[in-house]
Write a structure and sequence with these properties.
about 425 residues; alpha+beta; Membrane-bound Lytic Murein Transglycosylase D, Chain A; L,D-transpeptidase catalytic domain-like; 9 helices; 18 strands; elongated
Length: about 425
């Protein structure tokens, strides 16, 4: 009985194997003659609803696949040629115009698309201007367009800001703190001296972000002499310009714009106002940002500290120093010490004087200018009708140009600390 069962199983297996062999070796039947004629006449797969493999966006521009190309399969796939319109023979474009990618549609009209990699590094003109020091002397920051030309191995004598040559010596050893009552003050001064020495080494090693982080910790050190503060700020201001406001990707990896992604959506992801990303990346139209463009981004939100005794507003990105602006303090209402949150932002706001009389937005008498940031409890930070000077009317005022910058830096929800 067992032998009979084994024989049946072997027979079934042989039957299956024979069927497979017949299927693999049999000659396939030819296509019907009318189908062959249809393919030869049309030279297309359209009638069979077969996708030729090109996206609609490329097909609409007249870009064909290899089947339509005059290049043989052995020569490889067809390529798109990238050309610099400004340098093309016979071109009349300005010499500083951005390189473009020329794509031609079916009617032959040229579609000029900017090539993101060739857009010149730039930041908003106002972000690259001077930050006044506490002595009101103008401190010249590096030209934004020349930031890429800064030496990567450290400041050379002819490029180091003059203020880096003054102040705390970074060559002598820092004094060790003693055990008497002045130990704390001595330790703070020793820390600043060591921090400046360390930051100089970090910058020389092409680590400006690390140098900025090292020195930012000492921005609020109390009882600094004018010389020490000048030495500190003379490093912080240009470092902030390079690390935060230039096109260098020193804090975050570049953000590559996705399909149908807007600048507003990107800014919200990084907790920033979209105006800041537009300024840093020299974007004129925030709606039409090309997919694939690499953007300089930083991760917000920014915060602000208002020093009423110095009449100065300082910006921080986390713990990093990010610049400072002079302010004027008014009495309608007078600012009170404390920590507040930016609750609203407006570019046009009616002002009510001490008598409750309204002064509409746009009126030359309106002290808010073009910027109003609501801190709650009737307190606010605002601009000024004067682009070059803050006003002593209102609450906390910045000159008009600085207020425009601040509007693009602080977000709704940013923290603002007021102190004396």
């Amino acid at each position: 009985m067992q032998t009979l069962k084994t024989a049946i199983v072997v027979l079934l297996m042989m039957t299956v194997m024979y069927g497979c062999w017949v299927s693999l070796t049999a000659t396939p039947e030819p296509l019907p003659e009318h189908v062959v004629e249809l393919i030869e006449e049309s030279d297309s797969f359209g009638d069979f609803a077969i996708d030729p493999g090109l996206p609609d966006s490329l097909a609409s521009l007249g870009i064909s696949d290899n089947a339509d190309s005059q290049t043989s399969a052995a020569d490889g796939p067809a390529e798109l040629t990238f050309s610099d319109a400004a340098n093309a023979p016979g071109s009349t474009a300005a010499t500083d115009s951005a390189a473009t990618v020329a794509l031609t549609d079916r009617e032959g009209a040229g579609l000029q698309l900017p090539r993101p990699d060739d857009v010149s590094p730039a930041i908003a003109p106002d972000f690259g201007r001077d930050y006044p020091s506490t002595q009101t002397a103008q401190l010249s920051l590096p030209d934004p367009d020349s930031l890429d030309g800064l030496p990567s191995t450290g400041w050379k004598d002819e490029t180091k800001p003059a203020s880096w040559e003054t102040g705390v010596s970074s060559t002598e050893p820092a004094p060790a703190p003693t055990g008497d009552a002045s130990a704390m003050a001595a330790a703070e001064k020793a820390g600043l001296t060591n921090a400046i020495r360390s930051a100089d080494r970090q910058y020389a090693a092409d680590q400006p972000a690390e140098a900025l982080a090292t020195l930012s910790l000492f921005y609020n050190t109390p009882d600094l002499t004018d010389q020490e503060r000048t030495a500190l700020l003379g490093r912080l201001d240009p470092l902030a310009a390079i690390v935060i406001y230039s096109r260098k990707h020193l804090l975050e990896q570049p953000h590559r714009v996705g399909q149908a992604e807007t600048l507003m959506e990107i800014a919200a992801r990084y907790e920033l106002p979209w105006q800041l990303l537009a300024n840093i990346n020299a974007i004129e139209d925030p709606i039409a940002v090309l997919p694939g463009t690499e953007l300089k981004v930083v991760r917000g939100p920014f915060r602000a500290e208002v020093d009423l005794s110095r009449n100065e507003l300082t910006i921080f990105l986390g713990e990093l120093y990010a610049g400072r602006f002079p302010i004027a303090v008014g009495s309608t209402p007078a600012p009170q010490e404390g920590t507040y949150t930016v609750q609203d932002k407006q570019s046009a706001r009616t002002f009510y004087d001490a008598n409750g009389s309204p002064i509409p937005a746009g009126d030359a008498r309106n002290p808010y200018g073009n910027v109003w940031l609501d801190l709650g409890k009737q307190l606010c930070i605002h601009g000024s009708p004067d682009r070059s000077e803050p006003t002593d009317q209102g609450c906390i005022s910045l000159r008009g140009a600085d207020a425009d910058d601040l509007f693009g830096i602080l977000s709704q929800g940013s923290s603002v600390t007021i102190r004396r």
